[in-house]
Amino acid sequence: MADHQEASVTLPSDPASVSAARRYVAGVLADWGLPPDAEAADTVRLIVSELATNAVQHTLGMSPTFTVDLVLDRDERLRVGVTDGHPRFPKRLPAAVQQDNGRGLVIVRWLTAECGGRLSVRPTREGGKTIEAELPWKVPAVQPDP
């Protein structure tokens, strides 16, 4: 595998785009050697799902699209970012047990930390923001058939 690989897709800020983002990421991860049934693949799909949902729901029409970026460095680190055009950074809210929403970023932060990664938010030059999870990249060794 190459030392550095990148993949990106830009989708409309529409609820249907969340599942399209998950499918795209699943395909890229499989191309990069991560089996679709691996726990890490499930984790990355969930992270993308939560970040894409936030990009659709919380941009208040100020971002007609969002972009999902994947960057794999030296077979050691995977960065998964979702960029939207809304300038407001997410705020950490107390998530009450009875709440129906508002826990997406809490889930992403927990999943990222559980994997030994980190979560960051940074502004873009265009005035939006990117929320990025950086995770260790551990592709399971392929076992030869007996």
TrEMBL record:
Q: Which residues form a coiled coil?
A: none
What are the entry keywords? Kinase, Serine/threonine-protein kinase, Transferase
Name any one GO molecular function. Answer: protein serine/threonine kinase activity
Q: Does the keyword Transferase apply?
A: yes
- Which Pfam families does the record match to this protein? HATPase_c_2 (PF13581)
Q: Domain Histidine kinase/HSP90-like ATPase: where?
A: 11-130
The protein, known as: Histidine kinase/HSP90-like ATPase domain-containing protein
